[in-house]
Write a sequence for this structure.
């Protein structure tokens, strides 16, 4: 914290956070982490600090991460060109091996290492470990891109019970021994639903849901499922925001209490969302009874 804060001011900040700490103590919060916040080292460090701080005050934090840009970089190094259809990576056998290596190896273990370095107790697993994410082929033309058929949440609950921060890479499996690349937002929604999480926080590289996609001042701070459905129908929600909103709807329909889409480029945005009344991004909630 900056040196110009007095001890009294620091104490005041902590006191104001107390009701929020009490609200989330012992509750499960899933964070979907990816995009620019992962590529920028300073932001990565701040996200890890947020995760460890929440863990230390008794929040059961689960991190689900992607890593699309790093997969593309590794493909380039190996002389393969990335191809996309409707925003999904065409994934042949060699590409799914690269995805597994980058996601479950390099990225997953570097995040676990980061968390450990600043005092967290983390354990990295993939969707293959403990048969966590059972999948099947989404579309023949996409190759080894998976649809989630079942989530066996027991391994994640075991890690939480033993006091770990689970860090999950989104690779799935099937009974034939195939491995699938799974969309990170979709996996986070289903994992959060299976956990009955209090919150799902989806870190992106935009401020949230906008009425006008070109005007960041038109942020919609809170939206219900039926309002989201109307905005999908009238075209207000378009492009890359469509799958994100569909994942929010999916998460809530599977039992998550609320979902926040937030800008991962803002320093300590997770803490602002959970431990202050300011909040960040767009909160998606169920319709009132």
């Amino acid at each position: 914290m900056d040196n110009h804060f007095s001890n009294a001011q620091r104490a005041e900040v902590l006191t104001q956070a107390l009701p929020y700490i009490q609200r989330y103590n012992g509750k499960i919060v899933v964070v979907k982490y990816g995009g620019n916040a992962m590529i920028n080292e300073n932001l990565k460090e701040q996200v890890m600090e947020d995760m460890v701080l929440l863990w230390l005050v008794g929040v059961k934090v689960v991190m689900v991460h992607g890593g699309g840009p790093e997969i593309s970089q590794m493909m380039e190094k190996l002389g393969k060109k990335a191809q996309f259809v409707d925003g999904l990576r065409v994934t042949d056998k060699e590409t799914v091996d690269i995805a597994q290596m980058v996601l479950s190896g390099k990225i997953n273990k570097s995040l676990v290492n980061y968390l450990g370095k600043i005092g967290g107790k983390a354990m990295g697993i993939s969707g293959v470990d403990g048969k966590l994410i059972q999948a099947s082929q989404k579309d023949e033309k996409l190759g080894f891109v998976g649809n989630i058929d079942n989530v066996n949440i027991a391994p994640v609950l075991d890690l939480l019970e033993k006091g770990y921060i689970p860090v999950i890479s989104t690779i799935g499996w099937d009974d034939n021994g195939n491995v699938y690349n799974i969309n990170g937002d979709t996996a986070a929604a289903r994992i959060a639903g299976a956990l009955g999480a209090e919150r799902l926080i989806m870190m992106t590289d935009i401020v949230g849901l906008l009425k006008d996609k070109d005007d960041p001042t038109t942020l919609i701070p809170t939206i219900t499922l039926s309002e989201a459905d109307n905005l999908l129908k009238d075209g207000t929600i378009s492009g890359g925001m469509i799958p994100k909103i569909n994942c929010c709807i999916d998460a809530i329909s599977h039992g998550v209490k609320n979902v926040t889409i937030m800008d991962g480029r803002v320093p300590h945005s997770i803490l602002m969302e959970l431990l202050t009344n300011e909040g960040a991004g767009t909160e998606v909630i169920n319709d009132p009874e």
About this structure: The chain has a mean pLDDT of 90. The domain at 21-285 is CATH 3.40.1160.10 (Carbamate kinase).
